[in-house]
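Hey, can you fold this one?
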Amino acid sequence: MERTIIPIEACQEPCADCGVRSFSLCSVLDQAELRGFERLSHLVHIAPKSTLFLQDGLADSVFNINEGVVRLYKLLPDGRRQIVGFALPGDFLGMGPADRYSFSADAVAPVVACRFSRTAFQRYVENKPHFLRRMNEFANRDLNLAHDQMLLLGRRSADEKVASFLVGWRDRLERHGMPSKTLPLPMSRQDIADFLGLTIETVSRTFTRLERDKVIIIVPGGVRLLDFKRVEALAAA
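Sure. Predicted structure:
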């Protein structure tokens, strides 16, 4: 069933006030370039469970995530959902080689993003090799994440998959300047299951088992890591 895209309220905010610029695509732009880039952007607020774009839809916009978490997924022919990743602040979405989106993107929680016309964005970057190099860095990073996802879906136990997810999520949050023994998990258990290729029952049992073994503590909105060495050992198995 096709999902409804809820209208997005647009507003404007100076790029200089952006809290994620240092690890976003636009970090390589000087002040003059940034002013031109800002004129192309529209700051948008996306409500939880609302859709940024749909798989196979016309790829007419690209997005730089400023706040929140975005769920990225593909629908299989039989209607099942495979989550292929979760986008965080600083991530850039929608700039694939085709003229249609290859996956869908939904807001897990409230999301703020810079939205650009894809055509205007392409014209802007044409004569900026430093910006194109930055885009290539992002593409390589996304490719590495895709390779990690392929390994994650391979022949691994449920404990190993959940541990790998927790380690990978912690590492990504740390790169965004959010180190903590308590990991916020804004996504649902069903989301985690669809990301790991497990059932929701298996994911819930695995979290309960890890808590019983004093590896983690389940807390509201996330988990606290009690024995991270044990989690890392499971993830590396």
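The two ends are 39 Å apart (CA to CA). Let me know if you want another pass with a different chain boundary.
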